Amino acid sequence: MRITRGLIGVSVVAALFAAGCGTTEETGSQAGAGGGDPVTVVDSRGKTVTLDGPAERVAATEWNGVENLVSLGVMPVGVSDIEGYGTWVSAAPLDGTPKDLGTRGEPSIDTLGALDLDLVVVTDSLTEGALEQIEARVPVIVLQGGDAKDPIGGMFTNLDMIAKATGTEDRAAQLKSDFDQKLAQGRSEVDALGATGEKVAFSDAYVSSGTVSIRPFTKGSLVSAVFERLGLQNAWPMEGDPAYGLAQADVEGLTQLPDVRFWYEANDSEADPYAGALANNAIWTNLPFVENGKVHRFPDKLWMFGGPKSMAQYVDAAIAALKV
After folding, report:
1. If we measure between CA atoms, which residue out of 100, 102, 107 comes closest to residue 133?
2. How far apart are CA 202 and CA 279, in angstroms?
3. Which among 272, 274, 268 is positioned nearest to 289, based on CA atoms?
4. If DSSP codes are grouped into helix, strand and coil, which group holds residue 205?
């Protein structure tokens, strides 16, 4: 199921990661929506989108948008790659009612057009031309996929944008407050465990043609930012991409790490490269953190690029890993 990670997947230097946020036109687009006063949202492109009222029938093409909608109490009527969402995201489950839109990068325009939508939520990682096709039929707000300069702030910005468009600002404020409390509680637990300041290297990986490719979540990644708020330090020596804070490495690259806590995300829907392909690799088995039993796999279905609810799961997973 590696392919289900899709647009935030294999190569952090792919063009989708480098894509800009789109146009910065200031003209608004009118749309029918739920009852209430008109709602105006300025999206990540700087474009003003005006709805007649809070959007009720909403679709989302990326899973962070889906998670935020569900967390805000707005069950989307259309979701891209529903099976993949269920495989990778557990913080905000779907209720079985959304229609599948196809792939996240290039959703079905016909399906979107048939759903009588008030709004479509997308990110800046749609394939070329897809945004224009969607926007010709339905109002669209574009979220920024990631912001390595301020990952948690970017996560909140996306949440607030969706909340304003759907009239759920109070719920968004509660989600942010709950998350801040979660971080504070987690930091206290880390301190009580005597782990404040410990170095952590978090990653995921995949196998292609027998070769293991490792994706370090460097400083600037959302998960890393959560760990840092808990009082932990990112151990990766390399820089990540400017959107998601992700880098690339192979097993030889892991020799740059000292004796750290090595944490990683995997999923039973696909092979575990660390436990499988590298199990008998001499470089891997001789790494100090492998020899000292500091490798820990996180639970399945924690979405690394999600919203406050997914990141709260990472707080719990980090505390549990420190107790191992």
Report:
1. 107
2. 18
3. 274
4. strand
Question: Each residue's pLDDT tens digit in the chain (324 positions)?
Answer: 333 444 444 333 333 333 333 333 333 444 445 557 999 999 999 999 999 999 999 999 999 999 999 999 999 999 999 999 999 999 999 999 999 999 999 999 999 999 999 999 999 889 999 999 999 999 999 999 999 999 999 999 999 999 999 999 999 999 999 999 999 999 999 999 999 999 999 999 999 988 999 999 999 999 999 999 999 999 999 999 999 999 999 999 999 999 999 999 999 999 999 999 999 999 999 999 999 999 999 999 999 999 999 999 999 999 999 999
Do 183 and 156 touch, CB atoms closer than 8 A?
Answer: no
Q: Residue count of the chain, please give it.
A: 324
Rounded CA separation 199/67 (Å): 29
Domains of the chain: 2-177 (3.40.50.1980), 194-322 (3.40.50.1980)
Q: Which of 53, 69, 79, 253 is nearest to 158 (CA)?
A: 69
Which two structure tokens, joined as six digits, stand for 204? 């995921």
Residue 270 structure tokens: 């696909």
- Helix axis angle, 169-192 relative to 222-229, nearest 10°? 60
Residue 58 has φ and ψ, to the nearest 5°, of -125, 140
pTM: 0.89
**DSSP codes, 285-299:** HTSHHHHTT-EEEPP
Contact predicate 307/173, CB 8 Å:
no
Q: Are strands 199-208 and 211-216 parallel, antiparallel or unpaired?
A: antiparallel
To 5 degrees, how large is the angle CA 6–CA 261–CA 237? 70
Of 62, 9, 4, 1, which is closest to residue 204 (Cα–Cα)? 9
Token pair listed for 218? 């460097």
